[in-house]
Specification:
mainly alpha
Length: 208
């Protein structure tokens, strides 16, 4: 398999993993609405970096890490669930500022980069999803190690392509939102994150 093939298949895998609706998607949409396109994309960078990490684990078939993630899945899910619930509750009570005051990328936005990285990283099933997707794409384990770097880079750019697309679509309709709608979006986003957190916790328990 050539470098270009691995790069393209990595991009497809990254796009497939990032696209399904989840808490990071909700956070990215919310940040784009409240702070603009660049803020949404910066949030996506955190998720793409975590996807790249899990893509590397799956691509290099690092069995020790995979075994650890599977073995400690309950505690990782618990931390992720608590994180989602806390973030969700905070968003339910968060008062939005007027859009005219939110065009600058502040330190809060960069903290959201770290947050989306952590939110994605505390979902250990991501690495299992990558293993399944890469197998479906015909990416075999046996290859020269440096070729896997093309696969991993592809995962990052595929994931980033989704976050750029999502932020661009949301930003297109951003000027139609006033403070009342932003407040409603905050509460919807917060409630959705709380629900996601509870689902992750109870679904994780049910599988153990």
């Amino acid at each position: 398999m050539t470098e270009l093939e691995l790069l393209m298949k990595g991009m497809i895998a990254g796009l497939m993993i990032a696209a399904p609706v989840g808490p990071v998607n909700i956070l990215c949409i919310n940040r784009t609405l409240t702070s603009g396109w660049k803020s949404g994309v910066i949030c996506g960078i955190g998720a793409a970096a975590a996807d790249m990490f899990y893509g590397a684990v799956a691509g290099f078939s690092i069995s020790l890490v995979i075994q650890f993630l599977v073995r400690e899945q309950f505690w990782i899910n618990l931390v992720g669930s608590i994180l989602l619930v806390v973030i969700g509750i905070s968003y339910c009570f968060k008062q939005p500022k007027p859009l005219t005051l939110q065009n600058e990328v502040s330190s809060t936005v960069y903290s959201n980069l770290r947050l989306t990285f952590l939110m994605t990283l505390t979902n250990p099933t991501t690495v299992l999803s990558f293993l399944a997707v890469l197998a479906a794409l015909g990416v075999r384990d046996h290859r020269v190690w440096w070729l896997t770097i093309f696969l991993v880079v592809g995962v990052f750019w595929g994931s980033m392509a989704w976050w750029v697309l999502l932020s661009s679509i949301v930003n297109r309709f951003r000027d139609r939102f006033n403070c009342r709608l932003l407040l409603l979006m905050n509460r919807i986003a917060g409630l959705a994150m709380v629900v996601f957190g509870l689902v992750v916790f109870f679904f994780g328990r049910a599988r153990l």
